[in-house]
Every structure is written in structure tokens, then in C-alpha cells.
Amino acid sequence: MSKQNLTGGDVNKDNGVERPPKQVHIRIQKGFGYKMQTTVQGLSDEYKLMKIVRAFKKEFTCNVIVTEHPEYGEVIQVQGDQRQRISRWLVRMGLAKSDQVKLHSPDERS
Asked: Where is the SUI1 domain (predicted)?
């Protein structure tokens, strides 16, 4: 899997406009019962979320969906506490730099 496979086209094509780096927020939330879920929000619009979902399913062997969050917009929901693994994967794949990824604790809201 490469960064090129996760985009809709040329990754470096920005039409000459300098875009500021986007923060990627990775949060953990309590699901049903004792289950936890990890949400990923803030990935660049140039990436196809469904391709990232397929890559996450393959990499982390868990259920992954894209859902609409009232506050954060489109987010990826991953079964279980996968914050560290997702963070490392995003940096390794070049989808985000390590200083762009913000890991939130369960009690943190912002």
C-alpha cells in the first residue's frame, strides 16, 4: 500500500496554493458495554476515506467504518483502542507527519 493508492490522483498536485498542515485527531471513545472505539478525524480531503478504511481493516484486523459525526464531520471509526497503531501507520504511510497527529485521552474533549 502506498500513499498514491490512497488518493484520488496526484498527491503533490496543489494548484500552486500552499496549504497549511492539517491536524489529525485520534480519539478513544466508550462504545457499547466495555468496548472502546477509536475515531480518526482531520485527514486531508485528497485521501479517499474508503481506501483508508480497507487498509485499516487489513492492517489492524478489526471492524472499521466511516461515519458522520455532528461536531467533527466525516470520521473513521475503528473497533478497539488503536490510537498508537493508527498514529504510527499514518506517519509510516506518509499521510501525516508525527507533529500533525494529536492523540486524545478518553476524558479529553478538545
From this structure: 24-94
Shortest CA distance to 39 belongs to which of 92, 103, 96? Answer: 103
Residue extents of the structural domains in the chain:
22-103
Cα–Cα distance, 74 to 84 (Å, whole number) = 21
CA distances from 33 to 13, 26, 44, 93 (A): 45, 21, 32, 33
Cell numbers describing residue 108: 479529553
Ranges in the chain, pLDDT < 50: 9-13, 18
pTM of the predicted model as reported, rounded to 2 decimal places: 0.78
Sheet of strand 36-41, all strands in order from the earlier edge strand to the far edge: 64-69, 73-79, 36-41, 24-30, 101-103
Task: Using the structure block, give the residue that is written with the C-alpha cell 500513499.
Answer: 3
Options 3.30.450.40, 2.40.30.10, 3.40.50.980, 3.30.780.10; CATH for 22-103 is: 3.30.780.10
